[in-house]
Design a protein that fits this description.
By secondary structure, this protein is α+β, with helices and mostly antiparallel strands. The chain has 12 helices and 21 strands. Strands 12, 13, 14, 15, 16, 17, 18, 19, 20 and 21 form a 10-stranded antiparallel sheet that branches. Bound molecules: flavin-adenine dinucleotide.
């Protein structure tokens, strides 16, 4: 039986309250289909970890958390299928139990699969595409309540559907590429001089399977560098006491000063299963700070040094509002609305203090500074660009909006955010 909740819900960070006053929790696919068919406006809510109004609906919201994860591994195909509302934490634990793994994870495992792929959520690694790149099949309910399945093998425009912003339908199941589980050891260094980091940027980011740099943009050093070393992948296993002028941490670290490192996945070079190391934060603990807003811009990696330099030059206006910034690398993909579409890139991420007005005032300055580098904002974080700015950055933007209009002619899956940032109306 579908449960209906009338209370207004906030997102995880508490910087946005959803305008939709009803949230439905269908317990069967049939309930979901009839709910969608009967609604004039409906959108899916994942685990509510986005920082803007993307997930909101002008009518009702639907959450898939009452549906069983229903995780099935196809060992021969090298895939796993699960209910779309399943969190990566739940999926990764079951994969680990059966000796498998995903190619990568985001900084936190708490997010739903559907919500994460809808916004092209990513981890780090020169050779690692974002989480949506592991998707090989999707089932979704269309605006009329019909059930569809699309796959990379059989659907010509499959690359349109994966980073779908919830505009094409309500995803019910997702099939993802998996591999044999692998071991990862995390090594953290502190206070690496910026000059050495920029001079050796390519060597640094290719040194490990996944690399993250944490900075407040101020001063002459990068606060922390995290190396997630995949065992046996041919990269160096040498992590000396000093690296590029930085010092190997001798205690477990949290990227944010003052937050307990108990929340973080184990470091200090102790190897563990990939699902216990690829995220920064542990499933049973608070990720990040909790009281925060996030923004992120993805840009081609050839602009890494210039873009980083531009951010350092803005440190006087950025740093007072900032908890921490993170620099990651992401491999190119072919997903139409992915910020990594067609280009290997870097992500410049900002974890802000929970000051919506202050953040909104500074974002246009950051976006202006990053505009020469064709920066694309993360769909699930706070940004100020609109459709007119974004369309030229995505070669398939017009095809995507045409597909969305054909699958959802009455605009049931649209909201103010999508009208402003995607449809330009
Ligand atoms: C502490 C923290 C750390 C983060 N770290 C990272 C990181 O490392 N890398 C990164 O890239 N991002 C990161 N993010 C951002 C986060 O991954 C994205 O905002 C992601 O979209 C959140 O997923 P969700 O399940 O909460 O989705 P929601 O925020 O609930 O929804 C996001 C979008 O997905 C759609 N959606 C959800 N379910 C469905 C469905 N069943 N069918 C169709 N559409 C659906 C919604 O309609 C909406 O458009 C972080 C966020 C937080 C709060």
């Amino acid at each position: 039986m579908t449960v209906k909740q009338d209370t207004l819900e906030w997102n995880w960070a508490g910087n946005y309250s959803y305008g939709a006053t009803e949230i439905h929790f269908p317990t069967t696919l049939e309930e979901l289909r009839s709910l969608v068919a009967g609604a004039s406006a409906v959108r899916a809510l994942g685990s509510r970890h986005s920082f803007n109004s993307l997930a909101d609906s002008d009518g009702v919201l639907v959450s898939l958390t009452a549906l069983e994860p229903n995780i099935r591994i196809d060992a021969e195909a090298g895939t796993v299928t699960a209910s779309a509302g399943t969190t990566y934490g739940v999926l990764a634990a079951e994969l680990k139990r059966q000796g498998y793994a995903l190619h990568n994870l985001a900084s936190l495992p708490h997010i739903s699969i559907a919500g994460a792929i809808a916004t092209a959520t990513h981890g780090s690694g020169d050779g690692n595409g974002n989480l949506a790149t592991a998707v090989v099949g999707l089932s979704f309910v269309d605006a009329a309540g019909g059930l569809h399945t699309v796959s990379r093998q059989q659907t010509p425009d499959f690359a349109a559907y994966v980073v779908g912003l919830g505009m094409l339908g309500i995803l019910t199941e997702v099939t993802l590429r998996i591999e044999a589980d692998f071991m990862v050891a995390q090594h953290v260094y502190t206070d690496l001089p910026w000059d050495a980091v920029l001079e050796n940027f390519d060597d640094l980011t290719s040194r490990a399977y996944s690399v993250s740099l944490f900075t407040d943009w101020r001063g002459d050093t990068v606060g922390q560098a995290w190396f997630k070393q995949r065992q046996g992948d041919g990269r160096t296993e040498e992590y000396p006491a000093s690296l590029l002028g930085g010092t190997a941490a001798t205690a477990q670290m949290h990227p944010l000063p003052g937050v307990s490192a108990v929340n973080c996945t184990p470091q200090l070079g102790v190897a563990g299963n990939s699902s216990d190391r690829l995220s920064h934060f542990r499933m049973d603990y608070l990720p990040s700070s909790g009281n925060e807003i996030q923004s992120e811009y993805l840009l081609p990696r050839e602009h890494a040094r210039a873009a980083i330099t531009a951010m350092r030059q803005l440190s006087a206006i950025i740093s007072p509002l900032l908890l921490v910034a993170e620099i990651r690398t992401i491999a190119a993909d072919d997903l139409w609305l992915s910020p990594n579409y067609g280009r290997d890139g870097i992500g410049l991420h900002f974890t802000w203090r929970l000051d919506q007005g202050g953040v909104e005032a500074v974002l246009p300055l950051i976006e202006e500074a990053l505009a020469p580098f064709d920066a694309r904002p993360h769909w699930g974080k706070v940004f100020s660009s609109e459709a007119g700015d974004l369309a030229p950055l995505y070669p398939k933007f017009d095809q995507f909006t045409a597909l969305a209009k054909s699958l959802d002619p009455t605009g049931k899956f649209r909201n103010d955010f999508l009208n402003r940032t995607v449809l330009g109306q």
